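Intended use. Records like the one below are meant for learning the mapping from a protein sequence to its folded structure. Do not use them to infer anything beyond what is encoded.
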Amino acid sequence: MPPLIECVPNFSEGRDPAVIEALLAAVTSVPRVWLLHHTADSDHHRSVLTFAGPPDAVGEAALRAVTVATEMIDLRQHEGVHPRIGATDVVPFVPMHDDGMADCLRVARWMGQEVGTRLGIPVFLYEDAASHPARRQLESVRLGGLRGLASRIDTDPSWLPDFGPPHLHPTAGALVVGARRPLIAFNVNLKTNDLSIAKTIAKSIRQSNGGLPCLKAIGVELASRGIVQVAMNLTDYRVTPMSQAFQAVQAEAVKLGVEVAGSELIGLAPQAALDQAAVAALHLERLDPGQVLETRIAAATASTKIKDPTLADFLDAVAATEPTPAGGSVAALAGALATSLGIMGVRLGHDIESEHRLTQMQHRLRELIQDDADAYTQLLCAYRIPKQNPDRPQSITTALNRATDIPIEIAELACEVGRVIYTCIPSVKQAVRSDMTVGMIMAIAAAEGGLHTASVNTQLNQELKTTESARIARAIRNLEELKRLCYTPPPFESGHLIQPGPA
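Structure written out for the chain above:
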């Protein structure tokens, strides 16, 4: 299973419940994506969603949410205190493991291209995904707001977008997409309505003005509450922890004769950051993570849990009402199971060459389980593109080609697996010959399933039917030959392959 990644998109809507619910529904419509948290603020007029899952699923969820935002949010009618340049302002992908940044970069670039092509929105890559040093910082892209960005696009070739048209979308503006390390959005509220005080404090504590490292800050007004706020981003809490940021705001507020009203966390924060804050607040000499009750319980019970729930999760996902995974993925799983039975038999017979061949095919069939689900998800997304969008026909054709190519490959591989197993049966131990035969039967089922899926898809597109007809016909011939081998008594010792039954 690929490493999980997180996505924390910010949308320029914090007041309309219908829009916010539509954004949440877009994210939760993607299988294997978990919506972890969401927040909406009417003064900032902004919503922040946090969700996680496998990289491709998270990218698809983000794309669906951006599509909804583009359809439902009009920046021309937007008023809010938070800086923004888009209906979807920023979409960061965040690795949840040390080796996850490559996946985040790949998904960020894929999404940028999809948004630029499908939705006609200019996309700028930032942070680790940035294509130009001047765009690495989000505030650099937002500099001057929509007017400032539009002017740079028009006058400076180095500010042409990474994807999409060289002009702002009339209602959705622009979009910033990137890959970055975890950050903490942490705000401190002040007991005053004087915005200049919040701006003064923000200026004095942020890194860009010589303040705390890894700290960004702005001053904003919370009109609905009659107070002002120092809104901060801690880009590395290990360098500047939350407690230090809070103390810095508090110290500057005291100098200006203002009290702190409280603080707030936007979105989610790592446990380590909260532990860090607890240590500072309580003046603990140290805090061993093992002293956290939930951590100790989790460690104690870990050995009793199922180590790899992948199969159970897959079965539950197939049984769910979501469209993926479905027939093609199940066919690929059947093929992978067939190879496992074959590998078991040839290992007992010390047939290293056959083991190597079957292992390679199993690896590919395991990949195809997910590939088929992803391909069908892409096809569904293509069909959801508005009919008036000129890119819709090509998007559907591309997605349909992939959704057909994958089940054909499943069928081809399954036939090859069955053939290899058949050739190995005479030399394997007699005790496992019946198991090898079951492997052939599973391979036949996998091939049948793959060919059925492919044949259904080709009925949707005459050109696809023509281009794939020879390949499908060849796979059908291979399948029929495999059936003959499996269900006809073999030329060697009888009784070890399944015998023909009554018609």
